[in-house]
Amino acid sequence: MIDIQHFIYRESDPTPLLYGVYDPWLVALSIAIAIGTSILGMQLARVAHNQTSPLLRQVSIIAGSISLGAGIWSMHFIGMMALSLCTRVNYDTLTTILSMAPGVLASWYALHLLSGEKFTYPRLLLGGLIVGAGIGTMHYTGMLAMQMAPVLKFDFQWVLLSVVVAVVLATSALWVSLRLNQQQRISPIYTLATGGGLMGIAIAAMHYTGMASARITGVIDPMYDAINNHSSSLSLGISLVTVLIGVLAASINALIRYRQMLRSLQNNQSRLSTILDTAVDGIITIDMNGRILSFNHAAEQLFGWQSAEIVGQDTAILMPKAYHVRHNHFLKHFGEAGQAKILGVGREVTGVRKNGSTVPIRLAIGKAKISGETLIFGFITDLTQRNAMKKTMRERDEQLRSLMSNIPGVTFRCQYNQDWRMLVISDSVKDLTGYAAEEFLKNGLSCTLFTHTEDAARVIAEIQTALANGEHYAIEYRIKHRDGSEKWVSEMGCAIRDKSGAVQMLDGVILDVTESKLRHAEYESIARAINQSTSVAEFSMNGTILDANATFLTLLGYEKNEVIGKHHSIFCSAQDAASASYRNKWEALNRGEFVQGEFKRLGKNGSEVWIHASYSPLLNADGKPSKVLMFMIDITERTRMENDLKLAKDKAEQAASAKATFLANMSHEIRTPMNAIIGFSEIMMDTEMQDEQRRYMNTINNSAKSLLHLLNDILDSAKLEKGKLELEIVDFSLYELVDSIVSTLWVQAKRKNLDLQLELDPNTASYYLGAPDRIRQILMNLLGNSIKFTEHGYVKLVVKQLDNHELSFSIIDTGIGIPQDRLDVIFEPFTQADSSMSRKFGGTGLGTTISKQLVELMGGRLTAKSEIGSGSCFTMILPLQPGTAQTMKAHQHEYPLPKMHILVADDVRQNLDLISILLGRSGHQITTANDGVEAIHLFNQQAFDLIIMDVQMPQLDGLSAASQIRVVEVEKNLTRIPIIALTASVLQEDRAAAFEAGMDGFATKPIDIKALTREMMRVLHLDHAILIDDDSVPTHNAHVEDGIINVGKGLALWGSERLYFQELERISAEIPLQMSRLNSALENKEAKQLAALAHSNKGVCGNLALPTLYASFSALEKQALAEDMDSIASTIQNIAVAWDSFNTQLSAHKTAPSTNSPKAAVATAYDAQALQTLLSELARASQQAEIDDKRMQALNEMAPAFYQHATQHILNALNDFEFDLASERIAQLQAQIQDEAHQ
């Protein structure tokens, strides 16, 4: 048994120590061997780690452990031989050989640890301990094999230190190797060098630390021969043995690696072959000449070629012919330049199958050099299914987009998290929020960012509650639009959950309900307002009351429980509820018809309530009435007011009738004495009298005419108020109308030194269709007022054509003006701008009132504007349609009547005298009668050409006398004598009565000799265009056709034919001078002089009633003011031609012929049978106390003039609801018509 204490060195040991010396070369050799064998061992461990075969794995580990163990052993003995002790040292062979075992075992374990898959720190520490212990064991075992004279002992502390160094360094070497193998951050060579170096250092460090623990005691051997020491050769031998062992291990490693590589190559080849054969994509290998070298199974399936068929053929066979040339160019260029940019890049191209069909493919190109030969690899994918899938997906995507775009509102899918990030959202979100869909998808916008702050918490809470209950959610809330506006939206959605049931996403739709929300609120407000202000009730289709609001119940005095379930008839009288109209109403409602009307209903206490009710059936989904909704308004008070208004209307109509009677009587009573005053004053002024007497007589005449004008104004106003004034619509010449008005007022304006101007728009038509007499009346009144209230300056009439067939007449003056506060009342009756005006200027204030009423009667409008001190402007706008030119007839007073025997009947002596004087001047023979009886007597005794008869006379009035005269004419078969009614009345009814009595004409009082003469000519049917009596007084008709001289207007202006024609002769003499002045100014281009000459001549021509020349000079004046010299020259030529025509017509005046002889009257025909039928129908209506407006209007239009008086009495009786009186008068008229039919 070995005594360990024998090997422990103590300081007390008296034996001296031997100190050796190391051979540095041998030390270096020992370290190199340690490092080299460590690297080899670790390489074998790496091989073992990568080895899949367990046997080869163990072979690699064993070879490595032998190599490493031999290295440790060699390093140890070389290191021991490097120490020279000056004594002979031998080694025990068995011990030396056995000392290798611990190193081999330790190496095996270390390499086994390095080749393992799992790495843990306990295994690492255990490995380090074993390796360190193995190295130490091998070292100290090897040292025990030493045989020498000195005694070998060890310092125990150094022994322990050497073991610790061995363990620590071995552990470090193992850890470094393992970490570097795992991380693989550096090259395997560096990993082996680092791990092997550390392990070799650990082995050497342990050895030389252990050598330091050795204590050799004894004396130097004097026989020791250092030269013959064979330690170096022995070391080399050991090194060689170690190298051989390493070479053997390396060979084993190489064999294993070769086998491994061979197997790997076989596996790779097998795997590659399998991949090629099982690959879904086609793989084709070609050389640089385009020949196919390989063709895998997928390519065979794709192109229909077998590998044996196609290998060796050109690849052009697999592509369309159009690409063949390009393919050859590609191969050539690819071989020269390489085109690295196309390598590994897929392109979609078209291939050709064996059967000639094409197939879409994706082609990727690869390149490799094998044995110096460049090969091209084509990787081909069949895109047929992918393209079909893409098409399907594209169609589905389009369908989805179409569906999303057509779904009302915004469809979306969002994440269910704090951000609610959108995953899908339709484009319509931009209309809703102002943000595009891309901003939600790319920028992470969420609708929660736009939710109104007041609604945000509620929205999230309601959604979470619905999702927690596994329900869909629906919620309305407000959002803020990008432009700052606020919108109401309705969101509906559901949850998308994972397998565990957790909500992952939300799918939903957001609708803009702003409009419907506002409408709903508005409808609610309207319904609430209707419910509060209107009585509303709901009925079933059989009339049962279902509901009623408070207003309905209050109106009828019921409580709600008293009416619910009761029938509608409880609000009606028994008679009403049983009536056919009541049944018809409910039958109509059941047919779905709307019913409304005014009804009398009964309240709870029996009180009568008049209502206006609307019954509206409510339709169900099938379009059939399901119930009735009634809206009811209380019109009891209105009905009471209507009854009061009806009574007031009756009273007003009675008052109007009394007013009409009063006006008729007033007209007669006033006009009769005025007739004498005006007529005799005019006769007196034609006699010789003193100047003072003439002045007095002129005052009387003017005052009487003013009173007559006042009376006419009052009567016109009354007729306008009653609506009885009728307009006579005829074609008229606008120019002649305004020209005659201006010419008439010209003298009046001249007396006040006022410039009376006329501006006529050239765009106006020559003729219009309207009421010229009333237009004349309005313009005469307005122009007369302007002249009256203007002291200085001018009065202007401006006529303009407006759009929409409207004509504007503006009367502008520079007069006193009207205050603004009086403009609003200037058109009211008896109103003037100032109360003092009636005293200063005269007038009643009716003129403007009548003018405005006449304008409105013609469908126009009359306005005024004024400024104090600056003047006024009255504008009349009338709707006038263009008219047609009418054959102009000379005014009758221009032509003396043929000598006639005339019977004049009047109960007023002055009227008889006046008419006798006026008509006697014209050479007529006048016979007078004081009443109708005397007139009939004279008619039977003498022959007359004409009868003028007053209507109102004692004993026998004019109407009765005329009727009897007509009877006598029929009985004796006499020629019908024209009869003219003479009356102060201006009422239409009196005119109708006169025609009904058989009179032919109508003349008013006071006597207007001109009007009377025209009426005489009309009833005698005299037309001066065809009169041929050479002995008659001259007539003047040539001027009418050419429009040069208007004799009628001239005579009206000058009052004397002699004076008028004298003035025409004077102006004729001045024509050469005037033309010379015009031509001179034209030659010198003196526009201002031309304007002045045109203006003065225009005035002269207007005053002499020369319309053509007046128009020409007006045009010349405008052209001169515009300095239009070309037009001026043409106009002056036209004026020269017009003057020639003037002279010709003036000369013809002296020799114009005339004729006389009245023509026979023509009877008026009418349909007596139709009139009888109409009267019978009105009689039946009158017997039933009914008013038939249509038949009354037809009677008024159908009845001839001689029946107008009777028909007017019938119509008045019907309008006054005097049905018995109307029936009586109808019977009288029917009898009269029947009697006349039998005659």
From TrEMBL:
Major place of residence: membrane
Residue intervals of the Response regulatory domain: 901-1020
Residue numbers carrying 4-aspartylphosphate: D950
Sequence ranges assigned to domain Histidine kinase in this UniProt record: 665-882
SMART domains (alphabetical): HATPase_c, HisKA, PAC, PAS, REC
Domain PAS: start-end pairs: 268-321, 396-470, 522-566
GO CC annotation terms, alphabetical: plasma membrane
Modified residues (Phosphohistidine): H1095
One Gene Ontology term from the biological process aspect of the record: regulation of DNA-templated transcription
InterPro entries: CheY-like_superfamily, HATPase_C_sf, HATPase_dom, His_kinase_dom, HisK_dim/P_dom, HisK_dim/P_sf, HPT_dom_sf, MHYT_dom
Domain HPt intervals: 1056-1149
Bilayer-crossing regions: 25-47, 59-82, 94-112, 124-146, 158-178, 190-214, 234-256
Chemical reaction(s) catalysed: ATP + protein L-histidine = ADP + protein N-phospho-L-histidine
Pfam families, per the entry: HATPase_c, HisKA, MHYT, PAS, PAS_3, PAS_9, Response_reg
Role summary: Member of the two-component regulatory system BvgS/BvgA. Phosphorylates BvgA via a four-step phosphorelay in response to environmental signals. Putative oxygen sensor; modulates the activity of FixJ, a transcriptional activator of nitrogen fixation fixK gene. FixL probably acts as a kinase that phosphorylates FixJ.
Protein name, as recorded: Sensor protein FixL
UniProt lineage: Bacteria, Pseudomonadati, Pseudomonadota, Betaproteobacteria, Nitrosomonadales
